[in-house]
Amino acid sequence: MLTKRLISFFFFFLLVWTSLARGAYSQPHPVYNLATSDMMLERVSSRITEFTLDNGLKFIVLENHQAPVISFVTYANVGGVNEPDGKTGVAHFLEHLAFKGTKQIGTTNYQAETLVLDSLDQVWKQIKAAQAAGKEEEVTKLQQTFKQLEAEAAEYVIQNEFGQIVESFGGVGLNAATSADATTYFYSFPSNKLELWMSLESERFLEPVFREFYKEQQVILEERRLRTDNSPIGQMIEAFLDTAFTQHPYKRPVIGYPEDIANLTRNDVQQFFDTYYGPSNLTLALVGDVNPTQVKQLAEVYFGRYQPLPSPQSVTTVEPVQTQRREVTLKLPSQPWYLEGYHRGGINDPDHAVYQIISAILSNGRTSRLYRSLVEEKQVALTAQGFSGFPGDKYPNLMIFYALTAPSQTVDDVAVALNLEIERLKTEPVSEAELERVKTQARAGLLRTLDSNMGMARLLAEYEAKTGSWRNLFTQLQAQSSVSAADVQRVSQSTFTPENLTIGRLLPSS
């Protein structure tokens, strides 16, 4: 049980850095041949409608009338990679504040509240200036004033009113997530509450009020302490990414550095929102018991209120080609873990499908090569996993492998065993039987997603934003089906090289 908790704990921290788990655990796979799966996917794609409002906001609608429910995803094409230097964590901070309400929701008197919020900001600036000048007595007085203003502001707040409205009308699953690549907001409603969603969600990003800012700042700092500062695994992941990347913002933690979080202001969040939450940078996906014509009519009424804004600048920093092996070792109170990462292309790379197949061959559950070799046969590890697309996949990223060392074994034993399996991919063609097995698993995985309104909504929005068209979700499956043993060997030989390798070792401190 302890081992299972350790494995789950490590995998949780990896998921903190990514938006989706990729090939982590094995599940029973129904058998789908290529012709059958293509027919099913064709039927699904034929039920998808898309339209773009005049202001640039994109909608994707998938009809699924099996149950009177609609799942909604608002996909903001902005994540940790888009943050200005010195302001890491602002994307995640904004996600938290997006639940605080608007000028109409979450307040008893916005006009009075906004005056207090402005005063809070002014006193906060004065506190920072006094601290920088070493004026301790002035700091103490200002902090007292700040606490009084916070108490006054709290009197106007209706706690979680947005969530209460959603829940009272049958909404479920209200949540959000920030990754390196994007920020997503999602929940589901009964299908007769489509217009209510239109009203709430459009209002939410039309006139958000970032109230309770300083309270939430402390919440996020505590979240950072739990996830990273007080966690050996969290520290290892942060150090590993900082070593693997030298220039690209994938090297930075999505939650942000503590000094950046502590120094963020409401104005910083507002500027970030104004830059990246324009309609042309948003994609909305609706999947379920919905009429596309009605969706478009309501979207024009509610979301048509958004003013068009210039599209934000994309990330232009390119990670230099790695030319020599990199290593990072931490000694902390922890079980020994071993990590390896190799740079690879992003989601639009021509070999993206090949990387997905390679990841499945090595890491897809108990039938994978790493599990069979390192855990069952050599018994050097208690678990051996990996996935492609870390910490995101919009830009060139990492294929990562990790293992928890077995008792009486060392991380060096794990490294040797892992290297043997990687070398096999470079020197021995994958058998047709094994290749077909992982392709079947990939098809089954996507087809299972079709049974989930929310899962499908998230994927459609993600592929639209990252690749330029939701249709690439389906063409990617076709690309995987075309991957050959020669492709696997070719990409393995070019990717799994000593100079492209980053190693991380987490060793017990005693």
UniProtKB/TrEMBL annotation:
The lineage of its organism: Bacteria, Bacillati, Cyanobacteriota, Cyanophyceae, Oscillatoriophycideae. It comes from Gomphosphaeria aponina SAG 52.96 = DSM 107014. Pfam families: Peptidase_M16 (PF00675), Peptidase_M16_C (PF05193). Residues 61-107, 159-255 form the Peptidase M16 N-terminal domain. Residues 132-159 form a coiled coil. One of its GO terms (molecular function) is metalloendopeptidase activity. Belongs to the peptidase M16 family. This is Insulinase family protein. InterPro entries: Metalloenz_LuxS/M16 (IPR011249), MPP/UQCRC_Complex (IPR050361), Pept_M16_N (IPR011765), Pept_M16_Zn_BS (IPR001431), Peptidase_M16_C (IPR007863). The keyword Lipid metabolism does not apply. Residues 263-441 form the Peptidase M16 C-terminal domain. Keywords: Coiled coil. The keyword Coiled coil applies. GO terms for biological process: proteolysis.
